[in-house]
Specification:
The protein has 137 residues and is mainly alpha-helical. Helices cover 39% and strands 7% of the residues. The protein has a two-stranded antiparallel ribbon with strand order 1-2.
């Protein structure tokens, strides 16, 4: 509690046990919210970073995509899109070894339709008919 400036709560009977904390959770939530609001975000990052327990800031999509730890651990990777631009994506969360994550872009809408239909034996004339009929794009 002293880390966040709420030393007076250390001996407060309202927060002496987990049951008491649960009973007064609305009050302690407000106290913590007020204490946290008094200091800048960057200061909290430094303060909480000195703790031994796990914690993490709430991040938006842009912040997550540039999170140094996620990038270093291979959880955020660059994938080249259909226009040749690098885009940051979340890597597959399942890994069975230490091999680097390899990801490729997803196909664009109907990108492979013609190729697949030709593999199935559809000739160009039939392909055009299907497109005119709206059966395929």
């Amino acid at each position: 509690m002293t880390l966040i400036g709420l030393e007076e709560l250390v001996d407060d009977p309202r927060f002496a046990t987990m049951e008491a904390i649960f009973e007064h959770n609305g009050q302690i939530f407000e106290m913590f919210a007020e204490a946290i609001a008094k200091r800048p975000y960057t200061e909290w990052i430094e303060t909480l970073g000195s703790l031994s327990g796990p914690w993490a800031p709430v991040q938006n999509g842009l912040e997550i995509g540039h999170d140094e730890a996620l990038i270093a651990n291979g959880r955020i990777v660059d994938v080249v899109d259909a226009d040749g631009e690098a885009q940051k994506l979340v890597a597959n969360p399942v890994k069975f070894d230490d091999a680097p994550v390899q990801m490729t872009r997803a196909p664009q809408f109907a990108e492979h339709t013609d190729d697949i239909l030709r593999e199935l034996g559809v000739d160009d004339e039939k392909l055009i008919e299907l497109k005119i009929a709206g059966a395929v794009t």
